Structure formats: C-alpha cells, structure tokens
C-alpha cells in the first residue's frame, strides 16, 4: 500500500526530512516487533522507532528486512530511529555501542540517534560521543529524549551540534509547554512518545464527540491534534488493524475550536518522569534480553 501522507514531510534543523507519523515498538518482544515492523512497512510507514533499552533491535532489524522485501522497497525508503542506552552513556561507551546496534538493525546507519534519558553527570559527554557518531555518518541526525528546560539549556551550552529532536511525553493531557517553547526557539523538533496516553484518553467524552463528528476514532482524533500541533507521533501497536487505523489521519482536519477544546485537557501529570529515571543500567529488565531473538 502506498501512502504519500506517511512519507517525509517535516524538515529537521540539519535539512533532512522525517515523517510526521511512525511506528513505536516499546514493550514489544523481538518476535512481535518483527511482525509489527513488517506490517507497518506494508501499510506505507516510513518511520520506525526503537531503542536498545527495548531489547528488540534484533526483531526490528528482521522486520525491516521482511517488510522491505514484501513492499519492494529498499533501506533508503525508511527512516530508522534508535537510542543510546543509559548503560552506554559517556563519550567512549556511546561510540563503542553504536556498531552493535547497527548490526542488530542490519544497517550501516540510522536516520536518527537519540539519547534515551539525560543521565546526570554523563549526558554532555554522551552527546559529544553522539556528535562523533553523526560526523562519522552512522547517524543522519542526532537528538535527545526526555530533556527538561534545565538539562536542555545545559546541553546547548556545551554542544557543537544542536539536537534535531527532543522526544518527550506529550499528549492532550501532558503538554510540557516550557520544554516545547524552548525547543521551538532553538529549532528543535518535538516528537511525542505515549501520544495516546497509554490508551487512557480514548474514552474521554470530548474526544469521542469530536471523533463521531468526523467519523473517526478517538485515537485518530488525538493523533490528528498532535500532527496539527506540529508534533511528530510514534504510536506503538503490534496489531495490524491498529497500525492501519493510526495511519489513517490525513484525510480530515480539526477545526481551530476543536483544537482549542483538546488543548484544555492539559493536566501536566506525567506517567513516568526522569526524577525516577536517573539510572545507569537497565531498570526494566534483564540487559541480556537485548541480544535474544
């Protein structure tokens, strides 16, 4: 299936283009990630987002190969993102880790490499390592995740390359306006993880009412609101019907009034935040899982 809407359409600060919607694979096993990625590519997805922390880079790499074969496409048709694992932070460790990540993903470069979390006392050195990875051509763009105003301001004072993206928790109930404002003032694109709020927003009456008016689902309304807010979205799913549904958001628009109504849902209540994530290892499981098929 060819879907022009899923092809690159936002230009990053280094002039490369990224799709506004992609597939996330957090919590998916290697097997499920492989299937989901292959299905997503067959449905026209270009952007695939994974991380070493997820333990499924190997599955994503297999899914990419399968999906490209079925779709008759090649590597350059995709936009692949992975992330620097917090256990690999620091200048040399981040450089040393990238080759293994590329091997699992079966590619010689990623289109975007993100720092997964701002590990205190290490993130500036990690960024310096990521700049080397970028200059070596192993990542076409580099960025960060989960950086607040304080840490991002500090990083920008030390960085030679301005991050292309800050991937943060963002959805109708979590706007992080101060972070968004800083990023936009510096030309840093916002990308949303948990764009659907872990599914907890789907039953909100306001969203249901707007969805009915447009003959869409609440999930599609949320994703449309985010895209119209100039935010890249990477909803996670391993179900083909949901993968297809999430992509079907480019044939309608929300009115200014509908956008404003959804804006009013903001509560700034994070599901998890970096005060709980100043870690150096793997808080979510066995690090050996990274290499398991």
UniProtKB/TrEMBL annotation:
Gene3D superfamilies the UniProt entry points to: NADP-dependent oxidoreductase domain (3.20.20.100)
Residues that coordinate or bind substrate: 116
GO MF terms held by the record: oxidoreductase activity, acting on the CH-OH group of donors, NAD or NADP as acceptor
Active-site residues, as the UniProt record annotates them: 54 (proton donor)
Pfam families registered for this protein in UniProt: Aldo_ket_red
Site (Lowers pKa of active site Tyr) residue list: 83
InterPro entries: AKR, Aldo/ket_reductase_CS, NAD(P)_OxRdtase_dom_sf, NADP_OxRdtase_dom
The organism's place on the tree of life at top rank: Bacteria
Alphabetized UniProt keyword annotations: NADP, Oxidoreductase
Domain NADP-dependent oxidoreductase per the UniProt entry, residue ranges: 21-267
PANTHER family named among the record's database cross-references: 2,5-DIKETO-D-GLUCONIC ACID REDUCTASE, NADP-DEPENDENT OXIDOREDUCTASE DOMAIN-CONTAINING PROTEIN
Family: Belongs to the aldo/keto reductase family.
Listed name of the protein: Oxidoreductase
Lineage, top ranks: Bacteria, Bacillati, Bacillota, Bacilli, Lactobacillales
